[in-house]
Amino acid sequence: xxxxxxxxxxxxxxxxxxxxxxxxxxxxxxxxxxxxxxxxxxxxxxxxxxxxxxxxxxxxxxxxxxxxxxxxxxxxxxxxxxxxxxxxxxxxxxxxxxxxxxxxxxxxxxxxxxxxxxxxxxxxxxxxxxxx
Amino acid sequence: xxxxxxxxxxxxxxxxxxxxxxxxxxxxxxxxxxxxxxxxxxxxxxxxxxxxxxxxxxxxxxxxxxxxxxxxxxxxxxxxxxxxxxxxxxxxxxxxxxxxxxxxxxxxxxxxxxxxxxxxxxxxxxxxxxxxxxxxxxxxxxxxxxxxxxxxxxxxxxxxxxxxxxxxxxxxxxxxxxxxxxxxxxxxxxxxxxxxxx
Lengths: 132, 198
Description:
The complex is a heterodimer of chains A (132) and B (198). Chain A has 132 residues and is mainly α. Helix content of chain A is 79%, strand content 0%. Chain B has 198 residues and is mostly helical. In chain B, helix 5 (86-111) packs antiparallel against helix 7 (141-152).
């Protein structure tokens, strides 16, 4: 099949002239520095990829702990609000602030409170250490 | 020591990922081991200038061309192309540059701030370059890429199709239209080359 493009030769000649004409000297970066930068970028990306499951786990832990605290507060909300309201100057002077409420809280609640507080502290330490 | 470890992690992380498109692009040829620093340096020396020229002709701004050249090689290294042969790598780098150039055009279209920069002419030679750049800038970006890859880089229709993300069958028609448009522009500006008599 003969070449049916009448512009091919003309354009080819012009494009070759256009390509051959001098450019302003480009500031080509050094190959070594490009290589090192690329490797560092890749190692950062690899570390981010490796840390992604840990970050997801951390977010899940925050949500679970926050949910735990919300559930705990909701569970004994009446007793807790009564305990907070008992902090009046009179009760404090008499040394009886919250004594009644404290007596009404179950052992299970206290254990749950301690467990949740421990988990919160552990999570806080983990976050601080991971940041460092 | 830490840097060495980081490099080791990076190298192993890089070795794990070979993009599917690239595997397909090797057309059954057996990929050799990934590129090391010495091979990259040799490859860079050969290709950096032509890639810069291509980007510069496409965009018309030397500063942006500098920036996109770096990004092209970063992306090239990140994709860690296995060495099949030098031609394959060369086409792969031009494909990467083309993608970045089109990303750039999309970005500026979004902000509607683009104008093709043609440096002010100061001599006869500069005048000619200025006129040629202006004529080339009248083409659409895809036409510029098509013509450059076909006539300057000598890419095949398959390679052009892959670089531009179009069907191989369409390349012939697109090339014909682009040539026709450029010929018209050259005639309009009196830039058409002298007819060649054998």
